[in-house]
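Read as amino acids, tokens; as here:

___
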Amino acid sequence: METTHYHTVQVQRTVSGAVEDVWQAWADPVKIAHWFTEEAEQDLRVGGRYRNSDGDEGEYLEVQPPNRLKFTWEQPDYAPGSIVTVELSAGEQEKTTVVEVLHQQIHCDDADDLQTGWQWALDSLQRYMITGLGIRFEEWMMMQSQ
């Protein structure tokens, strides 16, 4: 019998904006489309579903505005069957928010790509909170290599 080994990805950033504003950037499908994907549909309630134009979809397991989201991750190419928890808390400086993403039950082949993906996502969220525009993944990757 083969044992399956799972990995966990954890990424944390302090971003500009009050917790409630950062929550809205995650919770509002129009806003999340500016920094995470191009189109999104969300039924933000326990048992509700989400999906976006990148092929990510899943079900909300916990919705605790404005501090916590937990959802399944059913992206067939990256870590199907995994669980994502997003925690938002007030930062040390005024109008900043600590965002922590914990992505669990990841098959080892997907862990590095998801680590990179979540680092990009939180950097894109930070830019969105400051400018109203996120960072395209390709642009972010070029910035990382400079």
